[in-house]
Write a structure and sequence with these properties.
Helix content: 40-55%
Distance between the termini: 16 Å
Number of helices: 10
Strand order of the largest sheet: 3-4-2-5-1-6
Largest sheet: 6 strands, mixed
Mean pLDDT: 94
Low-confidence stretches: none
Order of helices and strands: HHEEHHEEHHHHHEHE
Length: 268
Amino acid sequence: LTPDDLRAWWTAFARPARATLIFAGDITKPQAMEMAHRFLGDWKAAPGNVQTPSAKIPEPAPTKIYLVDRPGSAQAQIQAGHLGITRHQQPDYFVSLIAGNYFGGSFHSRLNESIRVKRGLSYGAFGGFRPLTQAGTFEISTFTRNASAGEAVQVIIEQVKEFAAVEPTNEEFYDTRSYFLGSFARNRETPQEVARDLWLLESQNLGDDYFQKLFRAMDQMNKRDCLELARRTVDHERLTIVVVGDAKQLEESLSAIAPLEIFPDDLP
């Protein structure tokens, strides 16, 4: 990578026609327009337009474990998941904000209760839905001692299976929804947070009524919606599981759970 590579990238991709300028704070529209013209009015791009190729989205496959060998590592890092949903899949995405939270998004989630609180396998376990531009993910993350890595992976698989089979309790559903709605304004107190929301709407092409649709969905959804979403979007038999740790200590326990492939830690 050279400075010339960076200049070429800037020339091709940094273009005013693809840019969005957002102001938030103690500023008027005339002031914002004056500053935009003063600092960016002469910005011009080279002729032509560059199309960014879309990445190939992988097809779901049966659960498999990939073990990255780190000899001497005292613990194992675990990541698991598969394809999820995007913000444009509505109302599914709105339901996922609640379902993903009681599954693995908070300290009292099912995942953390099972891995940390009940079994003491880790200081924390988190999971849920993560929306991206072209495809979202459903993912889980935790860490544990080498001796308990196999047990932790097995608990993850069991929790994903339960997520798609067991309806949320009243406490899980109503407390999670109340927390989400109650903290909505608190999370938008600063100009930076307001600008973040505006950028979200613009960059993801969500439309000006996105938050109105979000609140309508929150008002109308129920516990059954969460279970139905989980049944349609998660599958414990099609997980990709990545474990980083000492292969000599981990191979036996992990290979008993699912097909295992081992990689050295100096991957290209």
